[in-house]
Amino acid sequence: MRRRGVAMAYHGVADVDPADDPAQLVCSPAQLEAHVRLLRRLGFRFLTAAQLLESNGGVELPTRIAVLTFDDGWRDAVTTVAPLLDRLGVAATFYVCPGALGATSADLAKPAWVGGEAGRLLDSSEVRALADAGMDVASHTLTHPDLRTLGDRELATELRDSRTAVEDLTGRRCETFAYPFGAQDARVRAAVAAAGYRLAWGWLPGPWDPLAAPRLPGPPRHGAPRLALKLAGVRRRNG
């Protein structure tokens, strides 16, 4: 547990009624803080995805390195997560969908993945604020489709236009990517590389591949003890 590197995958972070989070996409702030503190106690050092690329080109996830990633671009990234991580002295990477800025979960999926205030997504000014706060912002496509279902032209648009939009918003290079739903295949991976991404995250643990990099989903309903089990390779249903 202490030797392996780990990339953690999260979505929203809020105190939310479970009825508003049927897909269990939301972790509470207290649980996220417990996860970060556990990783630090275990000797992990935190890098963003961009910093990982800078350090070794994304060819591997070094030992005792933790990368925190947050998918979809929920508004709590700027209201809750960034202040919490700043207090802990940690930076993370947030994957946003520029075609859904200012929208809600209900605009992306029916039924909505997350209801109520917790279901709001970042708008363009909030994405800029997140980057200005020292967080890493990168691409999660324009509109969050399953990329395997798209034709070649639409696939290229989702990948290239989202990268350009993120770079315009942040003023920084965008070379990392997170697959919606973790869904990808050989054709999609080739398109991701052609669009200029050097590191692309999947969803579940597995062998290292820079274009299908493994992540460990943070347990959305549990704190440090459950994460410790997951880091040790013990898996339970529902996080």
Characterization of the model:
The chain has a single domain, classed as Glycoside hydrolase/deacetylase (TIM Barrel, Alpha-Beta Barrel), CATH 3.20.20. 35% of the residues lie in helices and 15% in strands. The chain has eight helices and ten strands. It has helices at 29-41, 49-56, 76-88, 105-108, 124-132, 152-170, 186-194, 224-231; strands spanning 6-10, 12-13, 26-27, 45-46, 65-72, 93-96, 136-139, 176-178, 199-201, 216-217. The strands form three sheets. Strands 1, 4, 5, 6, 7 and 10 form a six-stranded parallel β-sheet that branches. Strand 8, helix 7 (186-194) and strand 9 (199-201) form a beta-alpha-beta unit. Helix 1 (29-41) runs parallel beside helix 3. The longest helix has 19 residues, at 152-170. The chain is globular.
